[in-house]
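quick one, 198 residues, struct below
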Amino acid sequence: MVKNGVVSKPRPSQPPVPSSSAPPVLILTGAPGVGKTTVAASLASRYPRAVHLESDVFFRFVHSGYIEPWKPESNNQNRVVMQIVAAAAAGYAAAGYFTVIDGIVIPGWFLEPVREALHDAGHATALAILRAPAEVCAARVRAREGDAGFDAAAIDQLWRSFADVGALEANVLDVDGGSVEWAAETLAQRLADGLLLI
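---
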């Protein structure tokens, strides 16, 4: 940007100050089969006005030229889709809906661009990473997709993406053995306490 003859670098995205009346947009993520969609639906039902954005649905809108999202060559496609998800979430949040983005939003890949897009749109952003043992997640995916839609290597690779999240470990909720209602209630409380903000 040039102002008064001085070139300035763009400022990095800064998290907005959350308003007590406006909950942050929640990015709810984790490995396939961890229970994201079920927990997101339960959590959204606890708010008087809420939107549950399933990012997987946005990938299905790609009619031609679709690339399986876990393949290395899908990177550009995935970024485009997640930018569109973030824009949709920002739109709903601006209209006053508590908004949950449910999807495989991997730190170091898609989390940062989604978070920055939401911050740039003026929305506080929260993150919750659901975690369960690899064998539990794989069994759920196999039961849901059947053998024809089950890629053990891809599932394991995605599970490992959430096994060590470094500084984001405080945003992890271990859901193994817990009910959907317990997970949703725990997340609602952590959101209210401001513990999931990123």
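Confidence is low (pLDDT under 50) at residues 1-20.
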